[in-house]
Fold this protein.
Amino acid sequence: MPLLVTDYSWTQTDSTVCLSVPLKGARVGKVDIMSTDEYLKVHYPPYLFEAFLFEPVDDDRSTAKVGGGVAVFSLLKRTNKVWEHLMMTINNTEKKEVRERALLNYQEKLSAQSTSKTKKENAEKKYALQKMMKLEEEKRDSIQKTKDEERERTTAELAAWQLRQKENAEQEEQLELHRHRDSQSKRGAMTEKRGNGCSAVRLDQRGDSEANSKRTPEDLPAPRLAGNIQVTFTPRLFPTALRESRVPEEEEWLKKQAEARRAVNADVDELEDLKEEERNPDWLKDKGDKCFVTGDHLGAVNAYSLAIRLNRRIPALYSNRAACHLKLKNLHKAIEDSSKALDLLTPPVAANAAARARANVRRGSAFCQLQLYAEGLQDYQAALQIDPHNQALQADTQRIRDIIQGTAATLETQ
């Protein structure tokens, strides 16, 4: 049963009643207040304050403030007169009826406030929507106006250009007519002059023919001597013509290839238990290639790795091992081996173009499987620059672009 609060205080004027109810240390959030025209309740467990007001008050204009350990109410009277008491004296049955009536009125008041708040929010949303639609309409009108002005300006420029073209064509036609008249007049003058001097020309031609008929075979020059001209070409290892090649880069590549074939790593002497053929990197590379073809990718990795221990300067070993790592889903190792192969495939020349393209594709494929599509696209584009007519490579590159664009569109919608 709640404890009734009796140590409240109140004062009044002809129009207002000021009521102060102590909260006895209760927090503001724990205080429940219900107020109507004839009933006031302040509940903060285990305490309860009820006031069955002596006269009706205007609840809509009354105020309540809670803080500092006290609840202060300012109740505006409906009639300007002095009350004899704060509360009227009624029995329990009448109190029950007042409570029920007050609760019903309070619920109706809350419902009306909620409805009013909802209407107000809807009105604000409707106003905001109308404002936004108006702004969008103004924006569309502005864009359409700009388009119309641009279209009119372009139409005017096109009409002016067509007029200039027509004027230029007329001027060209007049100039051509003048040239034709000048040429006709010159042709007539030349015809007249040629008619006057034709007999002299015929006489000169007759004299030349008579002089040629008097020549003897001894007067003719001797025939030229026949002979052969020896043409030699510089022997080259590259299929391109010398004028189309980059000689310094090709010589550097050949030098690196020769050094790679001569290179033997220091740890070869430690592999004393290897057979003679197992000490040959080329033999190990062929063995790795055969294992890869038969599907023994782990065996191929072992063969390539042993060959790399023997000679770390052959790019094909790293590139082929990268292909094996791709099959085994060792994607980071595939990227590492492809990068090492590309480092060794320098300088870029025609002889290593195909190998560079394969290494780029293998590294790009590993990047894409790791969902690093931007890095993968760079490698596929590099391979496509080397082999621009490869249709499969073109299709793969476009597919990666579509994936990147689809991911970006998904992020934007999110």
Q: What stands out?
A: The beta strands are 3-4, 9-12, 16-22, 32-35, 39-44, 47-52, 57-67, 70-77. Residues 365 and 371 are 10 Å apart (CA to CA). Residues 250-413 form a domain with the Serine Threonine Protein Phosphatase 5, Tetratricopeptide repeat fold (CATH 1.25.40.10).
